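Re: the 877-residue chain
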Amino acid sequence: MEYYQKEQKDVLLELDTTKEGLNDTEVKNRLEKYGTNELKSVKKDSILKLFLETFKDAMVVVLLIVAVVQILMGSVVESLIIFAVLMINSIVSVVQTKKAEGSLDALKNMSAPIAKVIRNGEKISLPANELVPGDIVILDAGDFVPADGRLIEAGSLKIDEGMLTGESVPADKDVATLSNTVPVGDRSNMVHSGTLVVYGRGVFVITATANQTEIGQVANLLENAMTKQTPLQKKLDQFSKQLGIGILILSILIFVIEAVRIYFGGSSNLSVDLLNAFMFAVAVAVAAIPEALQSIVTIVLSMGTNKMAKRHAIIRKLPAVETLGATSVICTDKTGTLTQNKMTIVDYFLLNGQSAPFNDKPETWTFDEKRLMQIAVLANDSTISETGQELGDPTEVAMVSFSNKVNQPYGDLRQQYPRVAELPFDSDRKLMSTVHKIDNESLMLTKGGPDVIFNRSTKVLIDGEIVPLTEERLKVIEDKNEAFSDRALRVLAFAYKPVADEHTIQFEDENELILVGIMAMIDPPREAVYGAVEEAKKAGIKTVMITGDHKTTAQAIARDIGIAEEGDIALTGQELDALTEDELNNQLEKISVYARVSPENKIRIVRAWQNKGKVSAMTGDGVNDAPALKQADIGIAMGSGTDVAKDAAAMVLTDDNFVSIISAVEVGRNVYDNIKKAIAYLFAGNLGAIIAIVAALLMDWVNPFTALQLLFINLVNDSVPAIALGMEKGEPNVMMRKPRDPNEGIFAGETLISVLYRGALIGIAVIISQYIGLGYSNEMSIAMAFTTLILARTLQTFPARSNSQTSIGAGFFSNIYVILAVVFCFALYGLTVIPGVREFFAIPADFGWVQWRISAGLALGAVVLMEITKLIVRKKA
């Protein structure tokens, strides 16, 4: 049995304590046994370890080998460039990893610094980290609860547990023992570490500290939740391994073939020829590896973050931009995410049958309406400041806000009818009463739970007349109350009775009341959510509601906004726990609502979708959401949420608006499309270089490129157009497509064909250029091959903008950055041929306009063929 299912005396006995508290000796023993009341975490990897792990990548290993070879060959400049690129990529990776470790630190900061505790029979204050199980702690309004415990005293105690349960309304607490197994949100005789006392007072015995508390369990889940790689990261890692291994094999094969040919061909200078063969192999490695790939992907993702920031979505973890584009399931919290997190009066009922709406002309109200509003506003402790700040219980705030909304300023009523006496709300009575002088008559105004008010009423107010509460009349209002409840509305009842002047009211006065009516309220959905859910459906994204609220309320909201459809299922956390993994897997796609869930439930739901191969997003704002936010492929926290949730999430919504998620998905899809365009651009150019190198090797020509030339093209020249491609505008139907398959390869669809075709055309143009250059000299052939390659790769930017449309068809000037990038690259090339610089790039002095025009013509011809092919293919289609 849990502590909430045990009697007070049994709890105290089990914990070996009394209401007088522990003595100092016992406290010392328990501190040694249980440790301090602080959240503990596993040891994190050191920065050095994280840094070294970045060099495990296959492509990085190949580049390190190439750099070492360059040093041994005396090419220090080339090796330093390679080392610099690798260092920058490693530092960026380490920084991003360390940033992701903040969620547990934020959780630790939520513990209460000071607690009021009874020890040795005396009340003292001490740091909360010195508390142990068995300590007796005193709570007052405004206190943070320092540990988990069982209440032994409770006076009108209300605690805000939203950070654990997700509920917007503070929980009423009492000392009554519970018999059934219930979730955290329904454990009315328990208090939990990190929650806030908003009303009343209480005394509890500590049952758990540190990581054994509910918030400690959240910390444990955060530790164990897996940080997911994005689909793009997975594919890039997979491709890097394959490419790295392939490049090593190809380079070794080329060297072996050439060495065998040299050895058996009777070389006159074996060592020089073998050295040249080795440099051929090195050139292949440098040409094949897109050294700037990681940097370009990072820059394109960063540009996506800027676009998302303008749409109220702040990206904390860069890869999340791309993940959004593949999202197929959004698991969303209800309170504050889909709803406004603000209780609002939406209906009322009087015994004369009158119901909503309340008109906004108080002077025309009936006597019954006026009396209902008087009770709602006067038997009420909440206020709204001049700046609009709402203070008090959310249900009471809803009533004064409603009064203001219908042009009856609540402050005017309170000034006109000041409070004479009161009986504060009590969770046992479920009533609140105040006395006021209204129309020269002293009246006790009472509000509370409908069942309690109904049972204590003997009369009713109908059209200004006080008449007996008959069975028929009671049935009418009970049916209306039930109808409101079926709509998941929270209902309060209102009554009054005359009392003698100067009478000091007692609890027994709250009987023989005159029933006036009931009011119904709800935390309503955000207006924009309806359209956002519909847009998600069109984009092939399923929205699932996961909430700590009650099942009936959650279902009603889900049906209203379109999340729950005909035949869909709603489960509570306990019902979910009862399902096996196979049962959950079979029903998963029909479950649209999960209610009264625990943090463990949320992680299980996210993992279930991930096991089906779906890319899942999880939204939330509370501490209870943090583990699932971390587990999800992309965690989305609300800007108004806890720091713990924000630190665990990959994205934060500054406007707490669900519609911003769908807007961010659109940007994510565009970003992924543009990353594919940039990757295809880079690999088509690299493929062209490899084809030219292999052709030169087979035809026994001189190596067409130096390592510095290839590094210049890969790192400097190609980077700018690739980044410009990352700024392409999205396709108009981007949100009408289904989410892409996360297992889809980088070169899926038309991308691979495009890379092969464009790479082949570039390679052929370079081979022809080198052949012509060999007619002059070996040096001239290298210069012409380099010129053709760099110009062809630069001009390839235009056909790379789309696999199906020509640059003109796609709107030549729709992305001005592409044009600027091409102009910039032409200028860069111009720098390589000026005297004093051309020597570094192996361009001889006799390379002139004739050779340049030949090279440029071949490059332009290759690009024109790329665009013509698109027109032919499109026409056939």
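The mean pLDDT is 86.
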